[in-house]
Structure prediction request, 346 residues.
Amino acid sequence: MVGAVVVHAGVAVGEGWHLRAGEPHAEVYALRAAGARATGATLYVTLEPCCTHGRTPPCTDAILAAGIARVVVGSLDPNPAHCGRGIDLLRARGLVVALVHDEACALLNEKFFNFMRTGLPFVHAKWAMTLDGKIATRSGDARWISCAASRAHVHRLRAEYDAVLVGIGTVLRDNPRLDVRLDGTWRQPRKIVLDQHCRTPHTAQLLQGAPIIVAGATAPTTAVSTLTQAGAQILHCPVDEHGLVLHAVLTGLAQQGITSILVEGGAHVLGSFFDMGLINRATIFIAPKLCGGATAPSAFAGRGIELMADALQLRDVHWHTSGDDLMVTALCNTPSVSPAALQEPR
Prediction:
């Protein structure tokens, strides 16, 4: 996601943003809006201008043609094909280029930066829990822990991610749709189910959206065939003593073009991602309710840790109200690329 503003004599004379893949980049829209006033102006852009010809021509060509005198770049492009080259090219042609390493620009593209750095999808874990840390009652009932405002926020979150992921337990218990159900037109994510033995019922609601069922190599052939006929795509991944190997799952999903995933649970899935250190960001909705019960599940199952000194310390924590709930967002184990961690070209 990229935005750009052209400023001439202290006045913003053009702005633009990248609408979607294949469309002109933000700089092009901003320069078009500025017209002749771009000559001698300053261009502010959140991400380093591209200098290669892909789906669209290089933005550096458009900047040079417009007569821009100075460019302020919010963050380097971590793509090796571009990183630093656009800045080098503009400086070589006499433009003044300032790289400011703005953290807000890094946050804007944390999913893309992470994918460029690791080759794996960005994983955002989301869960709702009561004030005493329960994600369901002792009978498994979880509708609804969070308030209506929080549930609407989750739908908006889904629209920001390539895919939504749950485990087979959630499918069997809740029969979820995993789609975005808000007024207006919203981007719909892919649906992913971790289902080692292909137990997803052929009547499951999420099958209407052509989901990806992640299965083990020994999943029953008949079950695989039934789900395929129902519209599912089967992704076979290796298993170990703990179940599906999550790193292999993420690698396989990345090969499907999925660069960001919202993980919605349940406890075993969240616990597995936690144990493997694969959660990049977390959003937790804490409802002002008490549930109790020694057998009522908490957010994370899995192995967990033994010593409090080994607990995962969340970073960049933000606290908000969401209706009657408290919403906490934070970075977890694997941060996205910080622009300051990339070397400015010399």
